[in-house]
């Protein structure tokens, strides 16, 4: 394991999700390490987009898919953590309707209503 990459990922994960992120990846063992290293150590640590912008993109992508509600919950929490409001997240979900359809948007809005 590349310790520098893992440490960079842990730091970025903490910025995005706070302690919730650790709680999500810790039980995943090696898969959790890969998520920390790749998603947060490599992708989320790139320059060019703010964490807020990255969460907007992530929420939109997850809201556009079926069967990923647990991950959507994590990223809605992360969205709040990086400054998105509930109203903004609702708009992000509504924006997915023309491209992904009503069923996925309805599912995503139901997840958002949990908060």
TrEMBL record:
Domain of life: Bacteria
InterPro entries linked to this entry: 4CMD/NDH-1_regulator, AhpD-like, CMD-like
Annotated GO MF terms: peroxiredoxin activity
UniProt-listed Gene3D superfamilies: AhpD-like
Pfam families given in the database record: CMD
Domain Carboxymuconolactone decarboxylase-like: 30-114
Record protein name field: Carboxymuconolactone decarboxylase
Organism: Clostridium manihotivorum
């Amino acid at each position: 394991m590349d310790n520098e990459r893992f440490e960079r990922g842990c730091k970025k994960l903490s910025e995005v999700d706070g302690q919730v992120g650790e709680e999500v990846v810790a039980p995943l063992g090696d898969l959790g390490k890969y998520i920390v290293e790749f998603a947060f150590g490599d992708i989320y640590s790139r320059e060019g987009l703010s964490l807020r912008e990255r969460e907007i993109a992530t929420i939109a992508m997850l809201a556009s898919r079926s069967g990923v509600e647990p991950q959507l919950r994590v990223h809605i929490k992360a969205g709040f953590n990086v400054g998105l409001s509930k109203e903004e997240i609702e708009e992000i979900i509504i924006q997915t309707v023309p491209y992904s359809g009503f069923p996925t948007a309805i599912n995503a809005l139901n997840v958002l209503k949990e908060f």
